[in-house]
Structure formats: C-alpha cells, structure tokens
C-alpha cells in the first residue's frame, strides 16, 4: 500500500478511552444542538438539514469544522428535537477509501431514524427524556438467571390475549399476558433477537422474503421502528424510543430483565458495491477490515467485518453499549459472532483485546450481563471457552453433547444395539463444563442451550432427521447440515402414538438436562410448548406464521409447559443445582457444589463406568457448599438407554431419605411425590431422568 500525504498527516488516534471520544453525535444544550463526528481520512464534512415532512427537501447545509484528531463539529439551532438530518463526507480516493460527497449518510450515533425508501434513511434528533418512576434494574444474580431467547415480534404477533394493536410490538411484549406467562414459567431474563434498527438485504427482497431475525444492522443506537405501535411510528422517533423504554420499565417492574442480542460484527452496508448508508462513506478504511488493496476481509459471512482494532470502531461499540445499558436501562447483551470483536490489527482473535476487556471492565457497564457467541466464520474463529473473566459464552459443546446423548446416540443404538459413547462426556456438561471453562471463571461462564433461534426448534429436533429449507429460496443449501437430531422412526408429522410418546419424552429429557445442569440455562421461546417450524432449521427470512409463536395449544403441549415450570421451580429452590464456582478436590469452595457419581448399583462409579459405551446410566449427587443460602443436596438419575433398568439409591452420609421432585417419565408432572430410602431399588423407565432432594441431618 502506498501512503498518501493525507494519510501521513492524520493525527494519531486518541485511544479507546480518551475523553475526546465523549459526546459524539448530537448533544442538545441551551436551545441549540452540537453535532460531533469522527473521520480520520475526511477532507470535509457537511451537515444537511431536511424538511419535517419531505425527506428529499434539504432546507440547509452547514460545514463541520475540523477540530483536530479526526474530530469534526458544528453547533446550530437547526439541530432541535425532531430535526431530520444527514451528513455528506468528502475525502481522498484510493485503496480503502470510498468517499462520495453526494452520498447522504446516517450519522453513526443517531438515537432515531426515519426511512424514506429501501436504502434511504435520515437521522433524527431525539431528546430521550423518560420518567423511570424509580424502577430499578432487577439485578438477577447470575446463578438464578433463566434466559428466554425470543423474537420480539414473533412472541406476541398471534397472542389471543394481547390487543391486535399491540401485536408484534415493544408494548405487546410488556403486556400483562406476556409478563404472566414469563413469570409463571420461571423466566428471569428475556433475551431479544436484534432490536437495533435493521434492514433486509436486496437478495432477499428479490426473492419476496425479508430479514426477519434482524442480523443486518443499520445503526447501533436506534431502536427498530417497525416494532413500535402504529401510533408511535406515526408520532416519530421520540415516541418509538419512548415505547421501547416503557417496555423495559414494565418488565423491570415485574422483576424481568431485558437482554439484547447485538450485532456489532458487521453492518447492513454488506460488501463493497452494495448501497452505502453510513460508516463506509464516513471512513471506510477505519471502520471495516480490509486487505491493503481495499478488498474487505469478511470473517462474518455477511460481506464486511467491523474493524474493532481501530479506536473509532471499538469506541462506537462501547458507546452504544453504554447508551443501551444506561439511557435505556438494558440489563445485558448477547454479542453475535463475538470472536470478530476480539480480532486485533492482524485479524487474529485475542481474549485480551482492548474492546473485550473494556466491555467487562467499564464502570459504566458494571453489573451488566455480557454473553458472547464465541465464534465467527474466519480463520481461528471457533473460540468457545477462550473469552476472559467477566464473560459468559454460548456453549456449543454443551449443545452438541446433550443432543448426541439423548438423540443421535439413541438412533445409533437402535441400529447397532449399543450406543457409540457412554455417559462420561455428558456428565461433564451436566456438571458445568469444567473441561471447557477455567476454574477462575467457573460454571457460570457457560450459557447452556439445546436449541436457539438458529437451528431446529425443540419439537423439530426430535421430529426430523434432516433440514427442510426449500422455502428459503436457496434449494435447501442453507442451514446446518449436521443437527444431531432424531425423528424417532418417522420423518416429520405422524399419527403414530408410540412415536409421538417417545418424542415427547425426548423433549422432556432435553429440557430436564438444560434446566438441571450447572451454568446459565437458555430456553428458546416456544420450546416450552413444542412449537414447530416444519423442519426449517434456518427460518431467518420468514416473517410469517412459520416463525410466529402459536398460542393455541393442545393438552400435551400444556403438560410440557408444566414440566418447564416444575424444572425452573426445582432449580430455584435447590442451590446445589446452580453452583457459582467449581469444587476443588482438596479445598472447601463457597458457592460450589461437591459432585459425587454413582452407578446403577449405588456404588461409586469406576473408570469403566465413565468410558464404556455400554454404561449409559448414572446417579449424580450434588451437595452445596453454603455461601448465601441454606445447605442443599440433590440426587439426579440419568438413564440414556431405551431399555428399562433398576437403580439402587446410594448410601450417602447424612442422607435419610430421597424426596422425588420431578421425572421425565411422566407425561404430566405429578403433584403427589414419592419418598425413597437410601439402598432402595427404583425402577427407571427407558431413556429418562429422575430428580430427588436428599434430606437428612446435614440438611
């Protein structure tokens, strides 16, 4: 690359936490507004103010002043609340620079947007005032957190108890009917698929489809206007933001946290040649990862990758997080393709990346839950377990092992009369994945999940061997090909009651494992009543009844939801199920659960019991080490074979009896629970789980 005189003249960047980055965007004061923009390579920036009703009518153009360090500023009374504006940026031409002084660009720190056409946007000045009424964040402890991942529109679009005017909206999610469902289900934290302003890719529009999930961000500060009620959309950006904040306040009043799925790894500007809307026209060289010739380095699979090795891009992300966590009172973030954010100037991942450390060390983000999707599609992109202190991570190793144990292993055993693996690997995941996360980080570093928005639903996981994605317009080429699913003998819908009963039990086993494992459980919206997407495991482009939750349920679906309620209750009431730290062989660790493992004979498991494929049954005793709660001990029987077995309950010091709490063998959770004595023989159903509370002198 040949450097120009302009490149050499640029002042060195001020550093990620330098106060000169403070106050970017529009700041209102004394009846005027000041706009500050950063562009290290620009020759000039102009502010364009538009008419209040006509987005094509520019009523004033003002130059920004270069104030040094790549910062540009202008102060004017035209930047009043509700004003619509854009910026034009001029600069040198050459590899990596894509300036066009004719392009109308969104200012990156815009708190509100208005849209004129498919790629025709304007920024809107927003005051952002809101009366929180003294409502504080719930601050749910990590070990008590139960996450419910869902699509904001899809959760309420068809809810019969929510008024039609609120269907699919921020206000709809905060409706008492939804709050009641979440609370009775035992949910503590709602994790929303992207609600930053996003758009649909031209390719999908040409197919008559849309980007339903929202992983195509236009702006990191503005809430997606389409999720507001019609009345608030008509009123404008201020009302849209007010509705979002109102949703957060009502959920907080109910004790529910709000976690946002955020997409900082790429933007909707896609690859070079696609419509520019913001960062590409402001300072392409600084905001996107590129080769020396200007070609993009795409580690996201979406056309571009935000270059967080530059202070400008990293600070943009950090400021966005601060805004949502403080001005909007959001409780946590799930970072899409978070490995991209941790890539350095050489494009290699490092857990000590300045942005990753700033996110968890920033006092302005104290107490905010930070969850990484710890991979991207670039070289060295799979980083599960590699993020540092303060981070929790989606644990795909957990997902795969649990699916294998209850589904693909059982499928294999039907054909080979023995499963391919035993129970050791499954037990490691059940106990908190200590083989993936360091002792310093502990089990709460693992976000456990069996399903997510991306992939089969729980129902489809036990009903389809292969994906059925033809409706996506890609000839079934998209979506994961390896799902570790099992249709239990028939592909898709069936009237065979034996198959249906086995599928229902498989779902109960998967849910039981999820909610009884050490770590942070994440339930996918609708899995509590077994929603289906007809075998589509990549329904990102369907804004339709295929992806909206149906609230018209049959009795077996209600029974499944009752199982979820029973499991979240058991988790809440038994701290041994939710340790905060890993136990140590020689030390007493407050907050840890001491784990002992027994075979079907009630004796301590030997090496063969762990490693042999013939051994698919264990008894797991977890004993809490009191820290803030009372002493507690549980026993969990796991049986991963389609033949029934008999288990001798273990003799454990201090245990006088075992009280049954939950069993996956039951179609509907029973209210009258049995009590057993140590040494008693228990009949265990094929492929099932049984949870007990151990009671005795020590407890």
UniProtKB/TrEMBL annotation:
One of its GO terms (biological process) is glycogen catabolic process. Residues 167-571 form the Glycosyl hydrolase family 13 catalytic domain. It comes from the Bacteria. InterPro entries: GH (IPR017853), GH13_cat_dom (IPR006047), GlgX_Isoamylase_N_E_set (IPR044505), Glyco_hydro_13_N (IPR004193), Glyco_hydro_b (IPR013780), Glycogen_debranch_GlgX (IPR011837), Ig-like_fold (IPR013783), Ig_E-set (IPR014756). Keywords: Glycosidase, Hydrolase. Residues 472-491 are annotated as: Disordered. Belongs to the glycosyl hydrolase 13 family. It holds the Pfam family CBM_48. The gene is glgX_2. Its EC number is 3.2.1.-. This is Glycogen operon protein GlgX. The keyword NADP does not apply. Transmembrane segments: none annotated. One of its GO terms (molecular function) is amylo-alpha-1,6-glucosidase activity. The keyword Protein biosynthesis does not apply.
